[in-house]
Amino acid sequence: MDKKQEILESLSLNERKILPLLKEKVIKEIAKKSQLEEVAVLRALEYLGNKGILTLNSSSIKQVDLGVNGILYKQKGLPERRLINVVADKKTISLNDAKKSSGLTDNEFQAALGALKKKALIALTEGNLVFNGNKEEITTKTLEEQFLEKLPMDFEALKPEEKYAFESLKGRKNIIELITNNNVNFEVTELGKEIINESKNIKGEDLIEALTPEVLTSNSWKGKKFRRYDIKSPVPQIYGAKRHFVNQARDYARKVWSEMGFKEMTGTSTQVGFWNFDALFTAQNHPVREIHDTFYIKNAKGKLPDKKLVEQVKKSHEKGVAGSKGWRYNWKEEEAQRIILRTHTTALSAKTLASLDIKKLPQKFFAVGKCFRNETVDWSHGFEFNQTEGIVVDENANFRNLIGYLKEFAKKMGYEKVKFQPSFFPYTEPSIEGYVWNEQKKQWIEVLAAGIFRPEVTEPLLGKPIPVLAWGPGFDRMMMGIYAISDMRELYKNDLDQLRKIKFLSQ
Amino acid sequence: MANIKISRKEFEEYVKITKEIEEQIPQMGVALERIDENEIELEITANRPDLYSLQGFMRAFLAFLNKKPGLKKYKIEKPEKNFEVKIDSSVKEVRPFTACAILKNIKFNDEKIKEIIDIQEKLHQTLGRNRKRIAIGIYPLEKIKLPIRFEARKPENIKFQPLESDREMTGLQILQQHPTGREYGNLLEGKERFPIFIDANNEILSMPPIINSHKTGRVEETTKDIFIECSGSDFEILNKTLNILVTMIADMNPEVKICQMNLIYGKDKKITPDLTPEQIKIKLENINKLLGLELKEQNLSKLLEKMGYNYKGKGIVEIPAWRTDIMHEVDIIEDIAIAYGYNNFIAEIPKISTIGEISEIETLKKRLAEILIGLNITEVLSYHLLTQEDLKKLNQKPNIEVENSKSEYKYLRKDILTMLLKTLSENVDNEYPQRIFEIGEVFNKDSNEETGIKEDSKLGITLADPKTGFTEMKQILDYLMRMLNKEYTLESGTNSYFIDGRCAEIKVNNKTIGYFGEIKPELVLGIKVKVPITGLEIDLKELL
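C-alpha cells for the assembled complex are given below, as produced in the milestone run.
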C-alpha cells in the first residue's frame, strides 16, 4: 500500500483532530481549539512524530518560583522579618514572649532564630533575645526579600546576589521551588504537509476505532476500514504469577537426580545431633559441633535410635570399627541427644542407610533441602542455605564410578569440562572436590563435594562396610550464578517487585 | 583447615615454581589460594596439620614430586642425664598427659621464631581444639634447671610472673586479669588444681594451657637449645604434635639435634619424641576394589613413597610418626589414589538399574503451586527463623528458640501465615493487589516426636487487595479441592488471625486441616497494610 495511505488510515481520532490545527504552533492554542487536554495533545504530537508527520524538539527550562510558604511570606514577611521587628522594638525579650508576639509556629520560630543569629542581629542570653543590630540596618530589604518579590525567574539567568538568596532559601520548607518546564516545539515535515492536505478528504467516521461488542454484532463494521494501529508503540509491562525462583531451581535438581535413577529422601530440618554428626563419624569435640557454628534448640533433648546402633556408633568413635582406630575419646550420649537444625542433608542419608535393607542393593537416593548454620547475615553469608546430595549404595561401587557420576552430574548442570582434586571431609575417604570450567568467566569454579563414606560410618549404619558414594553441588552458589544474583539475601528477600520481574530458569 | 603463607623466595629454595609445579600442588590435596611475586598462600585441610609449616609442606611435596620419595628419616639422640619430666599423679584430674623434647643447636632468627609461633598457634586452634586438646610450650633451655616436674596445684599456691605482665600473679589472678587467662580460662574453670611445669630450682615454667612464665618462657634470637612440651588428654595426639614440631625445626637447620626425654608416669615410663613409624596392613584386593583399579603389588612402593610412606612388602606400610590422620586402611587408599592422580582415573558409570522417584510430598507441593499460579498467585519463600521484632509486629509469643544465634533471627516459625504477613509488611511500597502463597515446613513442640518438635508441611495464601473478601478465598479453596479431587466440609471456626464470623474451619476426612477467612483489621494495620487481606492455611498431610 502507498505509504501515505497507510499513515492516513492509522491516524487516531485525536491525531486527526489536531492535524488541521498544527499551524497554530503553540500547544496551548492547539489544546484550546481542539478541546483536548494538553497532555492528550502532547501524546498525539508524539504519535504524529513517530509517523513522520512532524519532528519534535523538546528543551527544558529551569524556573525558580514561589512555594506554598513563599506565597504566604511574600504577603506577611519572612519569619525572620517578623521576629526581628518584635525584638528590635523591645530590645530584650524572653523567648516565649518573642514567639507569641511574632505569631510564628515552632518551625518558623526556629528557622527565624537561625537566620537572625547567622546575621548576628540577635544574641541569646539567659533565655532572652537581645537586639544586637541598629534600626537602620533592619529597614532595608534583605537579599532574600528582594528575591522573593522578583519571582518567578529563569534559573540560568540568576545574578550572583539572587543566586545567594536562592541558596539560602532553597533548604527551607516550601519557600521557593525549582520547576523544570519542558518546552516542546515541532516542525511539520514535507510528508506531513501532504498528509494534512489529503486528510481533509477522509472523514473520521469512515475508520473504526475499537472493535466493541456493539460494533461487532451490529454489523456496522461492514464496508468500513479499521484504523491501522502503530504496532511498534510501547505498552505498559505486565507480570504473571510464577513459582519462586529458588523452587524452580530445586525442582530442576529433582529432575536431574530422578533422571539419573535416584529416589528422593525427605525428612525434618530439626534433627537429633546423633544423625547429623555422630552417625557420620564427626567427633563430639569437632569444631563444627560448637554452638557458634551450629544452631542448637534451647532446652531440648531428643531420643536416640535403637540401642544396638547407638552402641555401634559409640564404639566407632571410641575404639573404631571395621579395623579402624577410631577417634579415641569418651563418647557421650547426652551430646548426641542435643537437638539441632540440620547442617547438611547428609543427616537424611544417615537415616536412610540405617533403615535400608541391604539385601536389596544397589540403591540410589537423593535429597534437596534447607540446611542451617549459625551465621550472621550479609551478602555472602546466611543462616539458611539449600543443599542437594545423592548417595549410591552398592557393594561394587568404586572411586571410578564416583568420578563417572560426578562427570555425568556436571554435564546435566551444563558443564562439559570437569577436573578433580583431593579434599577432606570427616566422613568420607577418599574425598573429592570437583571443579567445572565456566566458559563465560574463563575460570574453574568449585561446585562439587564428594567422597565415599568411611567404613566407620557404614559399618554401624549398614551392618557392614558397604561402599556408599556421596556427592552434592554448592547449590546456592550455583543458583546465584544462574540468576546473576550477587547478594545471598536476595534469595529470601521476597521483594514482590523483584519476584514479578525475575526471569524463568532457562534449563 | 588453615591457610598458610610462604614467601616465594623460601619456597624456591626447595623447588623452582613453574606452571607445572603450580598445577601439582592441588593434585596433592592442597588448594593453591593465591600466588604472586612475593608470596604463596596455601589452604591446608584439617586432616593434615603436618603441612602447616613450610618445612612440613615441602617434605610432603618433594616426595610427591618424586624428588625425595619415601619416609624421611631423622636422627634422634637418646635422653641425656636429667633429660627427664616427672609427671605427678595430681595432673590426672586436669591435664593428664604431656609429651616433651629437647632440641639443640638451633640458630634462631626473628623470622624463624615467628614461623614457630605461627605453627604453634595453628596447632592450638585446629588439632588442639583451641588448646583444649593440645597446649604447646616452648622454653629456652639455658634458663631451666633439669629435671622438670609436671604437677597440679591449688591456684592460690601457683605464683609467677606470666608473659606480657609486669608482676607476679596467682593462678586465679591469671585467669581473671591476664588477657590470655581470660581467653582460655574456661578450660580450667571449676578445676580444684591447675597444672604447672616446674624445674629443679622450683621455678614455675608455665601454667598450661594458659601461659608461660616471663622468666623462663620466652625464646629469643640468642636461644640455642629449647625444651618443648605438649600437654593434653590424649597421649598419642600429643606425641604426634610434638613430632610435627621437632621435625619442622630440625628441617630448618641440618645441625639441629633432636634429643629424647624420659617421661616418668609413676611406674610407667615413656620416651618422647618417638619417631618410630607406625605400621598398618593393607590389602591389595581392598585397594583395587575401592578404587576400581588393577594395581599390582610392585606398583604399591612407588605410589606409597610418593605420599611419604615406606612400603615394607606383604602389605605392610610404614606411616610417618607425624601423620595424625591415619586410622584405617582407607586413609592409605586415599593417599594411593592421590598418588595415582585423581584426574588419571577413567570415569565409569556402572550399569546398575535403579528407578528414580520424586517424593510424594514434593510432587503434591508442585501440583499445588501449579494450580495457584493458574489463579495468578505468586510464590514466595521465607526464612524458617523469625526475629523478636517480627513477633512483636505480628503480636505473637516466642515459639521454639535456638541458642546463641549470631544474627537477630532466633525463633522457629510456627505457621505460614506469619511469614506471609511479614512478607506483605515488607512490600507496602509495591504495587497492589499482592497475591502470594508459600508452601513450607512449620515447627511446633510435640513430645511424641524423636526431636520433641513436630514439623508439618503447610500451604499458606494471602491476598492483599482492595477487592478481596471471604468469598474469593472460599472460591480458591473450592477450586483447589476440586482440582485435587478431595472432598471437604466447612464449619464456622475461630482463629486468632481472622475476623470472628468470617472464619471457616476446613475439614477433610473429618480432620481439621486448616482455616481461612478475612484477616482482623488490627493485624492488617499492625503490619502497615492499607487494603483488606484474606488468608488461608492448610496442612498438606490429608491432601496426599
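Chain B touches chain A through 88 residues (CB under 8 Å). The first helix of chain B runs from residue 8 to 14. Further analysis is deferred to the final report.
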